[in-house]
Amino acid sequence: MRRPTIADLAQASGVSIATINRLLHGTAQVRQDTAERVRKAAEEIQFYGLGTLLDREKNALPRYRLGFLLQQSNREIYRLFATSIADTARHWHDAHIHANVDFVDDLSPQSISDAMLRIGIQVDALAVVCADHPQISQTINTLRERGVPVIAFITDLSAPNKAGYVGTDNWKLGRTAAYLIANMVSGSGKIATFIGNHRYQCQDISDASFRSYIREHASHMTVLDACLTHEEANAAHDIVDELLSTEPDLVGLYVIGGGISGVLRAIRELPDERRAKIRIVCRDVGTEARKGLNEGLIAAALCHPRDRTSHELIDAMLEAIGQGQQSSIIQRVVPFEIITPENV
């Protein structure tokens, strides 16, 4: 069987022989859709220069530098997201993406703003996880003026000049958590919610919608004032320890922010009979949460699907770059996963 020629490839792909030569020798630019059509035809007829065409097509892809500012390098959930983002960027199909993933351990607005500005001068777009604060809004304005769109990631921001938001519907998430606890507990009792910082919109909205569901569908239960953990496991442990000593009818814990390892440590210190009466729902699905699920201490974890969220985030950032200075805000709501001891 004779080897397919350049003329055969031109006929199979519907382009001229000159276009095939330009692609093979890289002597001039060829439209990306044309290059892709030629490459597909080369695969079908088993053209001898397929490897060269693949290289030409890959080199013709646009290149972007994307920045990702995550929090607390010691938190497993953010390290897992960093890995997922890097993997997603590495395998992006229609662009070369360099992912600049960084962490900020000092969560003060000034520290986060400084990090955003530092990364912002190196990238085409920036995604950030942070608490909502006027100083952050001002930094987003500054970056927008420099042509760098900022996407809020996981938790939304009120900044009017943000480019968009990628994350879960936190109103639905909070009501789902309340539904689970209310239907797992028989009779009345008290429920405590744990927030890392009231300025995280995702946490505050989840807390509000949790209370909304209980008022509407489980008024026989009482939700205590939100407990502030500052995302610290030891603080969460001490709060749970005190609640257990002062609230004998405590039946549920909704851990919205960080600190699940401290909560579990306090629960493990309880006698079996008391422990069995408390239902825990959390938003984390790291090693500690998985251990708690496997032990039956956590009833459910409501969390972001990491790979899908990373894909939606990068896609939204590329869309924001393409929009330029247009004012439309991109919204990518990612359905959350419900993980229980039976499907962990």
UniProtKB/TrEMBL annotation:
<feature type="domain" description="HTH lacI-type">
    <location>
        <begin position="4"/>
        <end position="44"/>
    </location>
</feature>
<dbReference type="InterPro" id="IPR000843">
    <property type="entry name" value="HTH_LacI"/>
</dbReference>
<dbReference type="Pfam" id="PF13407">
    <property type="entry name" value="Peripla_BP_4"/>
</dbReference>
<dbReference type="InterPro" id="IPR025997">
    <property type="entry name" value="SBP_2_dom"/>
</dbReference>
<dbReference type="InterPro" id="IPR050555">
    <property type="entry name" value="Bact_Solute-Bind_Prot2"/>
</dbReference>
<comment type="similarity">
    <text>Belongs to the bacterial solute-binding protein 2 family.</text>
</comment>
<dbReference type="InterPro" id="IPR028082">
    <property type="entry name" value="Peripla_BP_I"/>
</dbReference>
<dbReference type="Pfam" id="PF00356">
    <property type="entry name" value="LacI"/>
</dbReference>
<dbReference type="GO" id="GO:0030288">
    <property type="term" value="C:outer membrane-bounded periplasmic space"/>
</dbReference>
<dbReference type="GO" id="GO:0030246">
    <property type="term" value="F:carbohydrate binding"/>
</dbReference>
<dbReference type="GO" id="GO:0006355">
    <property type="term" value="P:regulation of DNA-templated transcription"/>
</dbReference>
<dbReference type="InterPro" id="IPR010982">
    <property type="entry name" value="Lambda_DNA-bd_dom_sf"/>
</dbReference>
<protein>
    <submittedName>
        <fullName>HTH-type transcriptional regulator LacI family</fullName>
    </submittedName>
</protein>
<dbReference type="GO" id="GO:0003677">
    <property type="term" value="F:DNA binding"/>
</dbReference>
